[in-house]
Design goal:
Length: 197
């Protein structure tokens, strides 16, 4: 995998401020020229149906971003997907994420995007390190709309013993979205969503 050049890595590791990136644009002309908003407008012009507000769309967006060595990606979110991103940030799989501020919805009027979708637009920054490169290499979906995979705590314990310590399972449980280590600590099972490698 081609990694970002040293200058980009240094900039990323200096804790980029997404809110600052958005707020530094004081007018429409400057705002439309920022890389984030350009990507948001491009994304909103192409995709705005209910099928794009799913865990499958989010994971596909993250996988495509890592494949093409991007610093950030744009996606739609809801409360459930925000809880997934919160988990990813907590465990260092992504650097940060932010829903597009309401003050910029007028920009999205150019995309004929409904207010419901505008309020769901999210920018996700990937995490890089000088030593290891991308923190998130690949996410494999384990459950699909046509086939939901559920595991008990005992089954999860047996499953994870066979796999590498570098692999992390993501589950949707009665106590929320969590990793397999957290689920095993609570001794609960759930819907096996994805495997992060």
């Amino acid at each position: 995998m081609k990694l970002p050049n040293k200058e980009k890595l240094v900039r990323i590791n200096e804790k980029m401020d997404m809110a600052g990136d958005l707020n530094r644009a004081n007018n429409f002309v400057n705002l439309a020229r920022t890389p984030i908003i350009e990507s948001v407008i491009s994304f909103a012009n192409k995709q705005h149906t209910s099928k794009h507000v799913t865990i499958y769309a989010l994971i596909n967006s993250l996988n495509m971003a890592t494949k093409h060595n991007k610093v950030f990606t744009v996606c739609y979110v809801n409360d459930y997907l925000l809880s997934v991103l919160k988990l990813f940030k907590k465990h260092g799989f992504v650097y940060d994420y932010a829903v597009l501020p309401e003050s910029y919805y007028n920009i999205l009027s150019l995309c004929n995007l409904s207010p419901d979708f505008a309020k769901r637009l999210c920018v996700v920054y990937l995490r890089y390190s000088n030593e290891h490169g991308l923190s998130l290499r690949n996410i494999k979906l384990l459950s699909k709309p046509s086939r939901q995979l559920y595991v008990t705590w005992e089954e999860l314990s047996r499953l994870t013993k066979k796999d590498s310590v570098a692999e992390v399972y993501i589950l949707n449980t009665a106590q929320g979205v969590m990793t397999h280590n957290e689920a095993m600590k609570e001794q609960i099972g759930g819907n096996l969503i994805a495997l992060i490698t």
